[in-house]
Amino acid sequence: MPEYATFARNVFIPVTNICRNNCHYCTFRREPSHPDAQLMGEKEIGDILSHGKKAGCTEALFVFGEYAEEVPEYMEWLESRGYSSTVDYVYKLCEMAIGKGLLPHTNAGILTYEEMEVLKPVNASMGLMLETTARLPAHELSPGKEPKIRLRMIEDAGKLHIPFTTGILVGIGETRENRIYSLETIAEIQLKYGHIQEVIIQNFMPKPGTRMESIKPPSKEEMLDTVQLARSILPADVEVQVAPNLIDPYLLIKAGAKDLGGISPTTIDWINPEAEWPDVEKLKTMARDIPLKERLPIYPQYIRSGWYSKQLDGLINSLANSEGYRK
Ligand SMILES: O=c1nc2n(C[C@H](O)[C@H](O)[C@H](O)CO)c3cc(O)ccc3cc-2c(=O)[nH]1
Ligand SMILES: C[C@H]1O[C@@H](n2cnc3c(N)ncnc32)[C@H](O)[C@@H]1O
Ligand code: SF4
């Protein structure tokens, strides 16, 4: 039985839903011609950040479709907003978030070493799901889900000393052996670089209208087994995260999950829009006898080792020293 479990309070900002990939489980992505296709503007994002700050959030989670720049319509939208690359725009949005007192965590899909180098000074942590080391039909239309490319980016983040979130998506056609190998591969990277703060064990949620709409989600037993595997395979300095809006976390916490990820008082989960966030009170009820502690999007060990830039120094220190956060 763990001493406690952690969670973060965030605002989820789906900056663009244009994506070069086409994962068979995803409803986040839009064709450029779709009425909901978007590149969010600075004013709209500024308002979400301010609202989130007032509601006690500490994290701005910026999520993107991958390399939307490969889609011509997107480049037009970006240029009409005055930017020539996604990274320039992300940089600006991260500066806005910091100015409003929120710590950025960017998950833009695949980025190059150079792109992450640019974004590192304005991000408290960054993320990319490995998904799986297996090559699956679910990813046949997604060049960016090639395991080698994902592993390259996760390693590059390590070389750059960026506190990092990765994870596996469970139930997209991979075997138990594949899960073990995915986790072993993440463990090896962690032993080499030490930058992985958490590994998400995310259960696949079938979505109506997708190619995988009638694939069964993983059972509770499979999720329990996968969390146990993760806890036994990953080094002790990596926390295992599960999403409390996708699965009842109680038994998973008892099996080794120690983090419940970001929950948002003001925004929805744009990747799983049907799954409502519990609020903190509800989360405490779900965790029953396990106490909860709020954390920041950068884990304490990376604050202590100074894995952040001057631009984040003031905000990280003032948040980390204020009452109530996991030290
Ligand atoms: O609200 C969500 N947050 C997601 N997060 C964010 C997470 O909840 C927290 O923001 C992190 O724990 C950082 O504090 C992700 C972060 C990543 O880097 C990679 C994948 C995810 C997936 C989700 C998700 O599906 N929904
Ligand atoms: C941000 C992360 O969200 C996850 N993701 C995308 N679609 C789904 C789905 N249907 N169910 C659960 N997780 C999903 C992927 O793992 C992606 O990397
Ligand atoms: S999961 Fe990410 S990469 Fe895959 S289609 Fe959706 S937005 Fe694109």
From TrEMBL:
Residues 5-245 form the Radical SAM core domain. [4Fe-4S] cluster binds at residues 19, 23, 26. Binds 1 [4Fe-4S] cluster. The cluster is coordinated with 3 cysteines and an exchangeable S-adenosyl-L-methionine. Its EC number is 4.3.1.32. One of its GO terms (molecular function) is 4 iron, 4 sulfur cluster binding. It catalyses: 5-amino-5-(4-hydroxybenzyl)-6-(D-ribitylimino)-5,6-dihydrouracil + S-adenosyl-L-methionine = 7,8-didemethyl-8-hydroxy-5-deazariboflavin + 5'-deoxyadenosine + L-methionine + NH4(+) + H(+). Pfam families: Radical_SAM. Pathway: Cofactor biosynthesis; coenzyme F0 biosynthesis. The keyword Iron applies. Keywords: 4Fe-4S, Iron, Iron-sulfur, Lyase, Metal-binding, S-adenosyl-L-methionine. Its cofactor is [4Fe-4S] cluster. Belongs to the radical SAM superfamily. CofG family. PANTHER family: 7,8-DIDEMETHYL-8-HYDROXY-5-DEAZARIBOFLAVIN SYNTHASE, FO SYNTHASE (COFH). The FO synthase complex consists of two subunits, CofG and CofH. Catalyzes the radical-mediated synthesis of 7,8-didemethyl-8-hydroxy-5-deazariboflavin (FO) from 5-amino-5-(4-hydroxybenzyl)-6-(D-ribitylimino)-5,6-dihydrouracil. This is 7,8-didemethyl-8-hydroxy-5-deazariboflavin synthase. The gene is cofG.
